[in-house]
Design a protein that fits this description.
241 residues; alpha/beta; Rossmann fold; seven-stranded mixed β-sheet; binds S-adenosylmethionine
């Protein structure tokens, strides 16, 4: 039977109710990081962050990665900044305490990165401001109504721009991922969640609909290989308001 992909699925991922130990979690997160690395997820976000920094030159940036898990994306951003001589403080937040233990251990050589166990939705307005907010493979976990609240929260936290990198809900992506996961993924959880994630992912029309609820922001929504949407939001300049 063909996968139902017309509407966003409301299923929960195994990771949403994860009760495994930290060793199992490490294996699942390293599978997810492999997907981001091989299928271009890291490159897409870094390129967008670079674009925002070029458009808003500053001596120092604060970058917040929401749902940072094992910190793999922050590591890639830190390396980009080091290579370019860009001074940046990087903060990762995640609900999952075990993921943050793994992140802190893996990134001990990156003093510019710090982690906080935190639900992004409960962050107060002045508790954690940043220039750029990034989030990868996180927004699809939320239902449409939760997403409206989440996106509003993102706009409160980031002064310069928001970079959302998430999945395209596509039949081709779904069946290609099945093949990819057999070759490249080691954990059953990442294989199953990967397919649920695509069913919970987005079509461009979904993202355009969400973007219309934030008319004070300027939106760029682009499809990127492999089956990602890159959504960059910036506060409208006085000329474009
Ligand atoms: C699929 S993982 C993506 C991890 C990482 N960004 C990546 O691309 O490899 C989603 C992460 O979002 C975190 N998360 C979900 N809801 C959250 C919330 N309300 N606040 C902070 N983190 C959240 C989860 O704990 C999980 O680590």
């Amino acid at each position: 039977m063909l996968a139902k992909l017309v509407n966003r699925s409301g299923e929960r991922e195994l990771m949403d109710d994860f009760h495994g130990n930290i060793v199992t979690l490490e294996a699942v997160l390293s599978d997810i990081s492999r997907v981001n690395k091989i299928l271009g997820g890291n490159r897409i976000t870094i390129h967008a962050v670079a674009q925002l920094m070029a458009a808003h030159p500053k001596e120092h940036y604060t970058i917040l990665d929401v749902g940072c898990a094992d910190g793999a994306m922050l590591k890639a951003i830190a390396e980009y900044c080091r290579n370019k001589g860009i001074v940046a403080d990087l903060i990762g937040i995640d609900l999952n305490a075990d993921a943050l233990i793994l992140a802190t251990k893996a990134l001990a050589d990156y003093p510019e990165i710090r982690f906080m166990q935190q639900d992004v939705l409960t962050l107060g307005e002045f508790q954690l401001d940043c220039d750029i907010l990034t989030t990868t493979l996180m927004t699809h976990h939320f239902t449409d109504s939760q997403l409206t609240v989440l996106l509003r929260q993102f706009t409160r936290l980031a002064s310069m721009g928001i970079v959302i990198n998430d999945l395209h809900r596509s039949r081709l992506a779904y069946y290609l991922f099945k093949i990819f996961s057999l070759v490249f993924l080691t954990t059953r959880t990442a294989r199953i969640d990967g397919l649920i994630s695509i069913r919970k992912g987005f079509k461009k029309k979904d993202l355009l609909q969400f973007s219309r609820r934030l008319p004070e922001m300027q939106h760029s929504i682009q499809w990127k290989w492999a089956f990602r949407y890159l959504w960059i939001m910036q506060t409208k300049s006085p000329q474009t308001l």
